[in-house]
Each structure stands twice: as structure tokens, then as C-alpha cells.
Predict the structure.
Amino acid sequence: MTLTADDVKKIAHLARLGINQQDVTSYTQDLSGMLALMTQMGATNTDNVLPMAHPMDQTQRLRVDEVTESDNRANFQVIAPQVEDGLYLVPKVIE
């Protein structure tokens, strides 16, 4: 798909981007190139390709899921300026 200068101006307007007139040609070429690459990638047969979580096929090191801290909620509630039913009360900031 090839974009025209008018297409690029319309896209810029919709995205609320300001583009200098002398840059429209280069944006047109760059965006057309990106769309051509996406079209080429979309046409590639990926039926036998398994999805990967990482391009290097590495596994993530995970730590043991265990509690490392004690529950300090009661201590924090005591020093809070305002608490009601176990919830922190804060000033209203949105009308």
C-alpha cells in the first residue's frame, strides 16, 4: 500500500500532529515502507511456527513464592490521619 501526501496530512490531522510541509514527502515514503513491510509480514506463512515468550528461547528465573514480610496493616492504620472500617480516607480531588 502506498500512501499519498494527502493521506499523510490526514493521518497527521487525526493524530493531532504538526508536520512541516517540507517533511511530508519523507513521512510519506517512511510510512509507505512500513505498511509494505507489514503487508509482507502478514503474507508470511507461520502455520508451523510455535509462539515464543522470548526470541532467545530463554526461560525466566523464578523465585519461590513465599511470604517474606509480616502484616503491618494495623500499625499503618494507627498512624494514618483518617481511617474508617479499615480504609484510608483521603481528601476529594475530583469534583
